[in-house]
Write a structure and sequence with these properties.
The chain is mainly α and about 150 residues long. Helix content is about 75%, strand content about 5%. A two-stranded antiparallel ribbon has the order 1-2. The longest helix is centred in the N-terminal third of the chain and has 21 residues.
Length: about 150
């Protein structure tokens, strides 16, 4: 349970702090609370069983997924964040492709994945790939200005 609460609250803020300078403080705080609360809620819905989870999905996958989604959405919608879209990033496309492939696997093989308790893991992996794509495509505005200066210097 402690593993779920810790990872559900801190995963996306730590990754974003290291690799995504666009993230806002408001998004980090929101992600901390929503990740923790969703993991706690998922344990509650599963009657606090340590080995039998609600809908056969481990709470850490739900909490971490909500954590990633909330930090992404709040950052992109926050008027204080200054970002631009950089579509010419091949690693972003790899993340996008990985997210779509994993979501497709989850859809096609839903029944066996769900029965074996792997649906949540594949769901989180898909969301994580999409998060990587967003981090690669959405860049800080000052990076755009630096790119324009570099082009002008050529």
């Amino acid at each position: 349970m402690a593993w779920t609460f810790r990872n559900s609250a801190t995963f996306a803020p730590v990754v974003a702090a290291l690799f995504w300078p666009v993230v806002t403080k408001r998004a980090v705080v929101t992600a901390l609370f929503t990740g923790f609360a969703s993991g706690l809620l998922w344990y509650y819905l599963g009657d606090w069983h340590p080995n039998e989870f609600f809908l056969n999905i481990h709470p850490v996958w739900v909490g971490s997924s909500v954590n990633v989604l909330s930090i992404t959405l709040v950052t992109l919608l926050d008027p204080g964040s200054k970002w631009f879209v950089r579509p010419a990033d091949r690693f972003g496309y790899f993340g996008l492709l990985g997210g779509v492939i994993l979501a497709g696997i989850n859809a096609v093989y839903f029944s066996p994945l769900h029965q074996n308790g792997l649906f949540g893991l594949f769901m989180f992996a898909s969301i994580l790939c999409l998060f990587i794509a967003v981090m690669r495509f959405i860049r800080p505005k000052n990076e755009k200005e630096q790119l324009l200066r570099d082009v002008a210097d050529l």
